[in-house]
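Quick illustration, no need to memorize.
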Amino acid sequence: MAGILVAVFWAILVSFLAVALARLAQTLRATTKLVADVTEQTVPLLADASAAVRSAQTQIDRVDAIASDVQEVTSNASALSTTVASTFGGPLVKVAAFGYGVRRALGRKDEAPAREPRRTVIVGRTLSRREKRSARGKRD
């Protein structure tokens, strides 16, 4: 009787192990299929990503070339501006000053210079000469 009992438990144990191994085999098959599907989808994505990175690198190289050209143009413009200012700046100022002097000289010839009456400011108030004389008299 003990032998039959041990054989029955052994059979139950073997059947549980067989079910567990069958489920493990199904899980391994599903995992294998999933990995294969992911691989099929990942390879084209990696190729596209690689192409995008190459394209971005090409664009960065172009932008770098443009930036260096802009820097060169800026330095050339700065040098040109300095040259023009040093070459024409002094003589232009002298010509403008001469023209201003000629205009003032011609303007004085036509009309007598009008002198404005002198004014004195006392505590925020402006006085003419007449008021200033009367203010002196009041102070003294």
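The chain has one domain: 2-110.
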